[in-house]
Amino acid sequence: MPQLRNIPYNAACYSEGVQPGEQVLCVTVPELVGCGVSERYLKKALNYQRVGLVYCWPHHKEGREVFVHYDGMAEKYRILVDKLLCNDVPAHLWVENEEAQTLNRKLEAFKKGLRMMVEISADDMAKLNEMQLFIPADIQRIARAAGWMRLWRKMDVKTARKYGFKTVGEVQQEMFKQCLNEQMKGFVKFPKPINNERTLDRKAREYGKEGLNCLVGGYFGNVNREKMNGQTHAILMQLASEQVKYSFEDIAMFYNEQAPQLGLPKMTVSAIKQHLNTPKHKKVWYYMRHGKLVGDADMQPMIDREPVSKPDLLWSLDGTTMQLYYKKQVGGKWVVKSDLYAYFVTDACTGAIIGYSVAFGESSGMVIEALKNTIDTWGYKPYQMNYDNSSANISATVTALINNMSHVNFPCTPYSGRSKSVELVIGHFQQRELRKFKNFKGGNITVKSHNSTANPELLKELSKNLEFTNQLPTEEQVMAQFKEGVVAWNSRGEARDAYGAFIGKSKIERYAEAYEGRVKLNYFEKLSLFMVELTNKQHPFGEYEYRQKGIEVAIRGEKMKFIVPDSDSSAMDFDFSREHLGHTFKVFVNLRADRPAWVELRNRKGKKVADAYEKEKFAACVADMKSKPGEMGKVQVFNLMQKQCYEDAQTEMERQREIVEQSGFKATGTDGYGFGWWDTPKGVENARNNRIEDARNGIAEESEEEIRMRALLNS
Length: 715
Fold this sequence. Notes:
- With 715 residues, the protein is α+β, with helices and mostly antiparallel strands.
- The protein has five domains: 3-102, no CATH class; 118-219, no CATH class; 230-299, no CATH class; 315-348 and 358-366 and 374-512, Nucleotidyltransferase, domain 5 (2-Layer Sandwich); 530-617, no CATH class.
- The strands form five sheets. Strands 15, 16, 17, 18, 19, 20 and 21 form a seven-stranded antiparallel β-sheet that branches.
- A hairpin with a 5-residue loop joins strand 20 (598-602) and strand 21 (608-614).
- It is elongated, with a radius of gyration of 47 Å.
């Protein structure tokens, strides 16, 4: 096949355009013969070329082998070589491709074994471990980086050619790619990340002069790199992590006071500050110094998310104090209050407040009211909901309601405001709308901006001013104020013009826009959203057991008992209890009512069994019954039915005994003692107990024969 060859200096060369030592594209005589050229003609033509009779067959000899120069041949022979030897491709291009393929094959074989050629020195591992400055994982990474440096320096021209490469550059290019790949995956660690071959080559030369120090010193500065050791590092980290929060100057003073006695070098404040503020060290002592919440907020990497594309794809829920003062009459005197709590339902796409509720504290009922307000106002339901882990949000009733309303829902990371879009909405709502009211008490205590807090001098002056109290709104008026603030927030446009006026569609207009696939709920769909299944976590199927007092469930934080009454006017459940006592049911409740009066019982297949109503409570004493006319009669009826229940059981048992006797079967327990002490006459049972007790005490009743024998012996 055609090949590029360097003409030896001592070779016999018969070509006018090429000199010994130069590279030329050659074809052998057997290859030309294989293309159909006569061997006899070739020998004659080559002899004529040597004596100067022809000039179209330039060639040179290497030993006894003859190589014909492709470029000097006549065109018809070049076309013949291209067609038959090079698959109809020009010979020069074909040779270039062949060399590239050969190089690629060599590179592929070299790539597979390159990472195995990186040697990790045990001495490097020991030195890094003695420094006590790195965690075990970093020791492994730095030691592997040193192995790459040694391999880079080892790869000279001779070694490269041994692996089949012409230049070192071909090998180093692949070495850099694999080293960079390991750096990105975290397998190697350099003082500063390498980003090109020149940087890696410079670091390798530094390693040849300084050894392992070039991979370690960059972490600790320049002047004090030799002073830093494991003991110094440990002492500084301990002082920096103290919860009393020593300043860097105090840390330097405490360290330098004892350093000479411990045989440690003194450190300047700037060197200590530079060392402790190294990111990998700061992430350690910062948590201990300031606590987990602050550490997470300041040191943890943050994820960046794209905005939500459409309304109702994500609702975000949370509650906070209302931050508005109001007046309330207590004991005939007006007093200033600020104890109202607001719960928000926000749309993450538009930032609109689409529902809310107000109460004196966060409860499951408050969450349900906010969701009911949202559904009733707009008639849409969300695809996803997020919320925090407060007790109100994770209660059984709220969890069941959220599961029924959304396809996806889960609580956000605790104490992480960034994970809930509602946090940002609440903060901006308070500072941009509620603060316009004179009775605004300021932002939450966690706010850092002074613009978000109320002026303390103003609040002090207003608290002394009686007119201020008189001007405060009442509880009903402050609720109207809050609603006014919500309307103003939802009316804010997308941006402001040069004069401060809002422009573009408002938040609520963008939320209310129709889009493909968005359909409002009808009346029955709204009802079904709030008809939720309560889950009993103590039962494998989430069911509740019907007991003597009915079914007991917790709704909105209140324990309630429900029974299936015998009739519409009855407060007893003798009939249903007779058939289903001890059975378990799925319990469905309608949360739209403030206090549900009934629940629906279904079997495991989802089929309705009965409606259970809240169990009526009776007074425990006669004095309380006097205030409830007719209650004494209900209690008497209940007692009669309890007695009748026992008598019905006795009657049924007697009927069954008669059937048994007629069949001729002798049942055990029917020999006068009944089936138990409760079915035995009291006199018979007492006599039996006396005999058992006497036998236990060793006083057994004697027979007549034993009495006569004892009398005979005594005489």
